[in-house]
Design a protein that fits this description.
heterodimer; A: mainly beta; four-stranded antiparallel β-sheet; B: mainly beta; seven-stranded mixed β-sheet; 11 strands; globular
Chain lengths: 114, 114
């Protein structure tokens, strides 16, 4: 079945450091890929998405490129801020015959120190 | 304001006592879904619904029931809760169309089953 694997955390960085959170997936179809972010005590919210191979999603300085050849969707940001501290989830949505399921990775907690 | 609401936000109950967690959205979304979040496991899909009276199982449906009698509401029912259903639960909704699977999440319901 479909699955999502993302790097374990926590990840601790200093402010202005470069961030990479790795995400790889397996899917039988042609899924859409997502990064969601969860701030403390809140629900998840969409950070960015890509719907087909080679698409690049971007938002708030974060970027991720849908790489079909390596089945990856790594999240990057050039210069993190303390306010980026949160849990980040990689996810895929794959349409089946009756609807679509969404599969989430286990989440990666990011701590950014001032 | 576009939103997904869940009630209650916190719930402590005892084994075997039936409970319902409500979920409502005001965005006229066709698709709604329930997830549970557990440490190290990310979010796992319990049930989802593509439209009124159309529901299907996710990855972890055992011990749960859902219904979709109205488009805006998607309650989660635990007929006989057990301690292994202690978790953080999220409801989400989205449009149901190709590449429109961005989901909007509620604030979460933290459930403790004693």
């Amino acid at each position: 079945g479909d699955s999502v694997t993302q790097m374990e955390g926590p990840v601790t960085l200093s402010e202005e450091a470069f961030l990479t959170i790795n995400c790889t997936y397996t899917a039988t179809g042609y899924p859409s890929l997502f990064w969601y972010v969860q701030y403390p005590g809140e629900g998840l919210q969409l950070l960015l998405k890509a719907t087909k191979a080679d698409d690049k999603g971007s938002n708030k300085g974060f970027e991720a490129t849908y790489r079909k050849e390596t089945t990856s969707f790594h999240l990057e940001k050039g210069s993190v801020q303390v306010s980026d501290s949160a849990v980040y989830f990689c996810a895929l949505s794959d349409r089946g015959t009756g609807g679509f399921k969404t599969i989430f990775g286990a989440g990666t907690r990011l701590f950014v120190k001032a | 304001e576009a939103q997904v609401t869940q009630n209650p936000r916190y719930l402590i109950t005892v084994t075997g006592k039936k409970l319902t967690v409500t979920c409502s959205q005001n965005m006229n979304h066709e698709y709604m879904s329930w997830y549970r979040q557990d440490p190290g496991l990310g979010l796992r899909q319990i049930y989802y619904s593509m439209n009124v009276e159309v529901t299907d199982k996710g990855d972890v449906p055992e011990g749960y029931k859902v219904s979709r009698k109205e488009k805006r509401n998607f309650p989660l029912i635990l007929e006989s809760p057990s301690p292994n259903q202690t978790s953080l639960y999220f409801c989400a909704s989205s449009y149901y169309g190709t590449h429109q699977e961005t989901q909007y999440f509620g604030p979460g319901t933290r459930l403790l089953v004693l």
